[in-house]
Amino acid sequence: MKISGVDIRPGNILEYESGIWKVAKIQHTQPGKGGAYMQVEMKNLVDGRKTNVRFRSADTVEKVRLDTKDFQYLYEDGDQLVFMDKDSYEQIFIESDLLGEAKAFLTDGMDVSLELYDEKPISVQLPEQVEATIVEADAVVKGQTASSSYKPAVLENGVRVMVPPHIESGTRIVVDVYAREYVKKAD
């Protein structure tokens, strides 16, 4: 399926220069002169190379259709992660660097979606948002609560996020896995 260069989003899998690439980051740029373009950072899913490409709105690129299957994360074995097919109970080993920074949010028993290309896993999608507990949060500075400022906090998995001043250590919050941002206080 062909898509316009400005419709590219993080997580998309694209066929570009006879390779399969996963979009890591995008930046829409509208210069004062000339047309707008999308600056796209991509990673090759076969050999791990990274590249930056500019796509203009007139450019089209092939979006790859992948088979998506539900798996459950079981455990880490060295630099491999073990997942179980929720239908056949078959176990599959995947390189941990395939998840990138999202690996920090992976927990035992978590349901994930694996994207397969020719029966080979090339992408792991975690839930967009997960709950996590704050283990360390800076104290509120007097007068800071009046403005909409944020303070740094550390989650149980070691990830640093910015949280509102009223959030304290020990609080359960909902975090956006891919943006690594505070969403809301957990129910």
Give a written overview of the molecule.
With 187 residues, this protein is mainly β. The protein has three domains: 2-63, SH3 type barrels; 67-125, OB fold (Dihydrolipoamide Acetyltransferase, E2P) (Beta Barrel), CATH 2.40.50.140; 129-185, OB fold (Dihydrolipoamide Acetyltransferase, E2P). Helix content is 0%, strand content 53%. The protein has strands at residues 2-4, 13-16, 19-29, 37-44, 50-56, 60-63, 67-77, 80-85, 91-95, 111-117, 120-125, 129-137, 151-155, 160-163, 172-176, 181-185. Strands 1-6-2-3-4-5 form a six-stranded antiparallel beta sheet, with no helix packed on it. β15 and β16 form a beta hairpin. The radius of gyration is 19 Å and the shape is flat. The model has no long low-confidence stretch (mean pLDDT 84).
